[in-house]
Structures are given as structure tokens and as C-alpha cells.
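Q: Got a minute? One more chain.
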Amino acid sequence: MPSRSSLKIFKVYGIEVRIDYSWFIIFALVAYLFGFTYFPWVLSGTAKWLIAVITLITAVLFFLSILIHEISHSIVSIRSGIPVRSITLFVFGGIAQIEKEPDTPSKELIISLAGPFASFFLAIIFGTVWLLGRFIPEISEPAKYLTFINIALGAFNLLPGFPLDGGRVLRSIIWRSTKNFEKATIIATNIGKAIGFAIIAVGIFYIFRGAFFNGIWLILIGWFLQSTAAQSHAQILMQKSLKGVKVKDIINTDVLSVPGDTSVRDLIDNYFMKYKFSKFPVVDNLNDKNYLGIISLNDIKALPREKWETTKISEVVNVFIDEDRVEPGMELYDAIKKMGEGSISALVTVKDGKITGILTNTDIMQYIKFKSQLGI
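A: Always. Here it is, folded:
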């Protein structure tokens, strides 16, 4: 299920390409940098309308370079037997959402190197344009900038800290030598956190030197790297602690469901306020109690109060779709990933149209909490 904070723009090689809303921030900053500072300075004798055209083309090529970097990862991933769900451009660059981690160090290595190699190849192309058009500033200056930006993009991504490409390369090397994926991930993420904090320190130094914008940007990048690395570290520790635990081991099979013809007012008074749950499964009491979907507090809050008495919950329920289904034998960690990637608050098991169990974020958090407290 795609993120609600992003827009689909097109598909390439069957991969959905999306733009996160945060991308518009960096697009505006890049356009301002090109159109009001860099190009007016290096192309001082060029007409303003032509600078505007050059700015637009360069900005598009700038983000196209980032997209090609991610597409390269994705194509190699698909050819390695690992599906790619989508590519999203956002404020810090781009990210390809793969279905699963590579199952061998060699696959991890070639997938990781594909992006930087693509960036360096683009640098060669733009460098060639720069060389051939060196006597035409309106061509050579944008090409020179794009040459250096692709070199920088490739080199930065080769820094040996997870989640950067270089961190994944490092993980593949450690993984191959130790035969331990978890250990390799922990080492790579720790280095990633260290690199993130180092970039933050450099950003603070830049601010004190008067380069406020560059300093703030470095701090944001460093924060993103270290927080993403820390999140990846936490995920691998969770995966390790939940290894072997199945959905059926914790799913709630004593399901309290609500008839679909119940009014919203009755739902609030006799279910939400009485049982203190944030969501309930809804069944069709006129059709052999077949499962309809999940009703949550957020669904109710979106409904005007004056309609609570007359509206039945079957009219506002989040209708069940296959993405909400989970198999009892699925690994619990995989179910958690499914909920996170699809922004799903509850998964259900359904048999012959009837709901047989429900798994919520609360169930998972309580299980992890108890497991941690017991030290098991």
C-alpha cells in the first residue's frame, strides 16, 4: 500500500515512482540556488529568461540523476530475484523500497554498487558534454555542475555506513566473512550512526564559520543518517528477538465484533467507552455475520456529531481488503513489516468469510514489552 504522504508520478520497469511531499521543499531550494545565485553568477551576461530555462532543465536533470541512481539499484535487485515495490523521491534524495533483504552477500554487493556506478557513469556523460561545449557557457556551466554533483552523489553514497550504499557494501563483506547477517548489520549501522554524528559536527562547525545554510543542511543529513541507522539497528534486534515467533502465537482469537447495523452512537457508548479499545471488527449480521472490515476512533471522529444517531457503522467502516489479511503461520516480524509498510493498524485472519483473529499494534507492543521484561 503506498504512502499517503507521496504522489505517484509514473512507472518504469514496472516500478512505481513516487514523490514525497517533502520533495517539493528541496526542489524549491534547488531552483532558488540555480536561478537566483549560481547561474546569475557564472552566467552574468546571459538573459534572465534563458537563465530561467537553464535553471529548469538543470533542476530536472539533477533530480533525474538521483532517480537513475535508485532505478539502477532497483533493476539489479529485480534481476537478482528481489522485487522492488516503489521508488520515492523525498527531501534527502531517493529510496527504493525492496520487498525483502538480499539473501546472499554477493547479491547485496552488486545491488549496492549499482547506484554509485550509475552516478559515476552519468558524471562521465555530463563531463563529456562539459568538454564538448566548453566554449558555450550556457551549456558548459550546467554540465560542469551536474558532473560534480553526480561524482559527489556517488562518492557520498560509498561512505561505509548503513543505510548508505557503502554501508551495505561493508555489510556484505562482513556478512561474507562472518556468515552472520545480524552481526554484519549491527556493525554497519553503528558505523552509520557514527558517520551521521560526524556530519552533524561538521554542520555545526560550518554554522560557526558563517555558512549557515550549508551547516543546517549538513545537520539535517547527519540527523537523517544516524536516525535511519539507529532505526535499522533496532529493527535487526527486534527481528532477532522475534525469530521463530508466528502470528498465531500472539493473535487474539477471542474477537469482539460489532454488528454492521449498529448506530455510531451505540458503538461509542456500548463499545468504545465500555471496552476502551481503539478499533473493532465489524460483521454483517444480515449476511451470516460475514466480516466487513475495521471501524476505528479516527473513522468516527471524521463523521459530524449530528450524524451519530442515524448513521450505521456499516456505512463508514473501512471495508476489508486483501492487504489487511494475515496468515497464522506468517513470521510475526514479517507481519510487523507489512503493517508498517502499508500503514495498517490491524491485521486479521479470515476463514470462509468469517473473522477468526485480529492482530493490532497494541498486541504486538505488549508482547514485545512482556518479552523484554522477562528477558526472553
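A: Residues 228 and 261 are 45 Å apart (CA to CA).
Q: Perfect, thanks.
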